[in-house]
Amino acid sequence: MKPSVQIAKREIAQLFSSKTTFIFAILLPFVSILFFNTLLSDGVARNLPIAIIDLDHSSISRNVISQLESSPELEVSYFPLNEQKGEELIRLGKVYGLITIPQDFEVNLKKGKQVNIINQYNSDLILAGGLEYKAFRKVIGTISAGINIEKQRKQGISTQQAIVNFQPLTTNNHVLSNPFTNYSYYLNTGFLAMFFQLFVILTTTYCFGTDLKYNKGNKLLSIANGNLWSIIVGKVLPYTLWFMLVGVIMLISMYVWQDFPFHGSKIGVLVGLLLLIIANQSFALLIIALTNSFREALTIASGFAAVSLSFSGITFPIFGMPKFMQWVSQIFPFTHFFELLLDQSQRGFPMYYSLKSLAILIVLCIVPLTLGWFKLKRLFIKGKFKHHI
Amino acid sequence: MKVSFKTYYKAKTSFWNTISTEWNAIKSDKAVISTFILMTVVILIAYTYIYSNQVVEEVPVAVINQDGSKMSRDYINMLDATEGLKTVSNYTDVQAAKVAYYSKDIMGIVIIPKNFEKNIRSGKQTTITTFSDAANMIFYKKVLGDVTTINGYFSAGIVIKKQMALGKTIDEAQQNYTPIKAISTSLFNSSAGYANYLIPMLTALLVQLVLLMGIGILSGSRQEYISTHTNFPRLLHPGGTIPILLAKACLYTAIFMVVIPIQVGIVYTLFSIPVRSSLLTIYLFLVPYVFSTVFLGISISSFFKRREEAIVFLVLISVPSLMLSGLSFPVEGFSEFYKGLAKLIPSTPGINGFVRLTQMKASFFEVLNEWNHLWILSLIYFVLASISLKRRAFKESQMMKSQD
């Protein structure tokens, strides 16, 4: 193992002498950890601005407005005079929804007629629009139920019985994994882990690419006495260890410094993290072997890591993708790590059910390197990429 | 008069020279061409294909029916009839359902209690218990949302039937039950489809990503070959950066005027994503977006000593730019610091404006705020870009002189 130690020493010296590698491998991972942890620190969207057109101007309509206002998700920010002005506010992006209280709202309600409240919401912004819709329905549902129960009480029915009469069927919802439905728990787990693997794959591609761009392949091969394995171990292992440390800090930032739920096996997650790093390094080597220039290798590596976010199912479940894309998603190590991380942290599944993810990650560590082995060897013998640029 | 004409003439020559130099650089650089094509067409198609199903349907949930009555089966049928859920009822107890949940066969559990029908008939309140997994918000919303809706309908059905049994008409019974009816109309993206939501955002983000990458790669190679000042000889003259920067911005705007119709024309048509504005409006909006991004690209490109560094760095800022645009997670949830930071990135007004134009039927005057915002950014980055270019040309020429 002597030559690989020599190469590792050379690699570490290079890391500290090159500003770029230093920034990418050491500085930026921490910047990304800081960024995502602070960006969504609230985790829950509150006070979404809405507009209300009150055509009734009665005490009941004002009551409805104040109830909407007091719901934590909504904030009544505009009172447009007519529908046109209100719709303009939506198109201007100033409000997420427009609620109209029609004329004679109070009069009709007192007469016992059914009255309507109209909510137009922007469903193009799925998250904000959905929250507005839900909050509106909840508030109006509560007011409406209150009126119904009040009516029954006037007929001499007890409040309790009136509630039962109104709602014979209730639900008791148990929210598993993420009890506060905190978006930070949901999005940050994905973003942080995705960025982490992006750094791993880019740094590995970078450290091999710089040597091969400037024709150092032969030199490395001579240090290693022609043994490709010691080059790989020497160059990759320092980063494997370093990123293991970064990864642990990333996990600590979520589960210790912040309050993300963690109910599963810590060892399982750590093993998964190690496998994620190695699998990404293995893919980086395959990409180096298959490409003709440093630039091409970096473009493909960064593309590979970036699209893995969408393939992991965090933005849209794998379950809902076209069949072909479901298969493609299995190639990405991140898909399996992300599943393992969610299962072992928030969901708190028994470790047994995560063994499959671990097994696939092991396969993804071995296969890419094996596929690229001979081409990589030829590349090192040649000493440089086919194209300089 | 003569002087001003001379300046104008020189500026004009420099403008056209820059356009041809830059165009030739783009044309002859395989990296830039492949980045352009890969990013603008291939990535966009791949992403759209991922989201092409638009909504998640038929999410499997386990129903544990402890009652076994006719009413409970009606309830299950109603759940099953929803678009979002598919009921799987061959689990007898929670333990069996839990195992299925661990192996991801089901995404939620619904329990119908014993005496469900009996209680409802005798006027007692009954409770349906649900377990939904919020580790993935999309599944969580589907399960909880659909169960809540069906429960509402089911309750209302029971009450209204009872009222009708007392001799009321169905209208009266309905009015009695919900004195205030909440009518919700979803605007623009009525099916809440993910492709409709994400792809316009991505199209606008790609403009920024591709431009920054292309400029970064070109400028990186000029740094490697120390050719900035020879490529653009007027850089060292006073005011010499103005025609050069304008020429670059105009050239890239022209390129995107070709790229955008191809993207919208092919991808949007292929996956039937609506376009609700005219091409002319999009062009008009695009001008300051491209200008500000080009100037930003030139300002930061001095940091890249090698062409490869630009690629790495710019991939890294793409996801944060998308997040900061405030369309995926509402801006109301960001701290003041991030709101401020977001305003400095061209993609924030760029994505907002583009999405509102193409998806929310906004007229050009309704995106005027974003348009002005982009012009202000253009101005700021123009100044920074001039300083950065000038410094580089100066440094290079000093370097060449000392070598001679």
UniProtKB/TrEMBL annotation, chain A:
It is found in: Cell membrane. Coiled coil: none annotated. Gene3D superfamilies: abc type-2 transporter like domain. Residues 19-374 form the ABC-2 type transporter transmembrane domain. The chain crosses the membrane at residues 21-40, 185-208, 228-257, 269-290, 297-319, 351-374. InterPro entries: ABC-2_transporter_component, ABC2_TM. It holds the Pfam family ABC2_membrane_3. Keywords: Cell membrane, Membrane, Transmembrane, Transmembrane helix. The keyword Transmembrane applies. It comes from the Bacteria. It is a multi-pass membrane protein. The keyword Ion transport does not apply. This is ABC transporter permease.
From TrEMBL, chain B:
Pfam families: ABC2_membrane_3 (PF12698). Signal peptide: none annotated. Coiled coil: none annotated. Residues 30-386 form the ABC-2 type transporter transmembrane domain. Keywords: Cell membrane, Membrane, Transmembrane, Transmembrane helix. Its main location: membrane. It is found in: Cell membrane. InterPro entries: ABC-2_transporter_component, ABC2_TM. The keyword 4Fe-4S does not apply. This is ABC transporter permease. It comes from Aureibaculum flavum.
